Known about the structure:
Helix 3 crosses helix 4. The protein has a single domain, classed as Glycerol-3-phosphate (1)-acyltransferase (3-Layer(aba) Sandwich). The strands form two sheets. It has a seven-stranded mixed β-sheet, sandwiched between helices. It is globular and about 45 Å long. By secondary structure, the protein is α/β, with parallel strands linked by helices. Strand 8 (192-199) and strand 9 (203-207) form a beta hairpin. The chain is built from nine helices and nine strands. The relative contact order is 0.18. The mean pLDDT is 89.
Amino acid sequence: MIRYPVPWDLVFGLTPHIAQKSRRDVDDFSAQAVARMLPAPAYQGLEHIPADGRFLLIANHYQREGLWILHSASAVTQAVRQVVGPGNPPVHWVVTANWPPIKLGPWTIPSPGDILLPKVAHALHCFPVSFAKHNPGFTATSIRRLLKAAPTLTRPIGLFPEGVAGAAGQLTKPLPGVDRLIAHLGKIGLPALPCAISETDRLIVRFGPLVPAAELVRSTQSAELVMARVGDLLTGR
């Protein structure tokens, strides 16, 4: 199985942006990450990507030993960039920390990720949410900011509904609350673009037909609805 080296120089290169509260060029960041992925990712179904950039991108959380979610997200970002054209960022990702809170007997210590997450997210034009159920107040504030910004965004909002529980080769249930978020974004007219990430002899990123905004709003399980379409793409339906 192919192992993709972590681009630590790009990751640590975020340090001055974090310190200065500035923004990194995500197009350049993701392009450099993808350029190091050998063999290069293969893209399918690019014709399904709306050129106006006004949509919600839903993908499976594809990560395994030797392939970090940064690789998958960068590959998807560059696929979108091919269609929507230059701009920064090509995708506004919703991100969460990979580390849960630390338990020491009766004490709970906040995850280091909760401290770094908002800073890294700002540098990469992302919307941060905390590890599941750990800091609901912070997550609620971030989601409100996302919903306020969404009507004027000209680039897609990217979401991995499974969160950090998702792994390569399997689909897990979407995180609680993702249904409501997708439905809210549907109410402002954003359709959902299913994106399936898989592997053969290389990483494969495959896009399917849009799920109309009205369908997202009508569904009581909008996350499951779109993830089912992702599953269809994974099985070749």
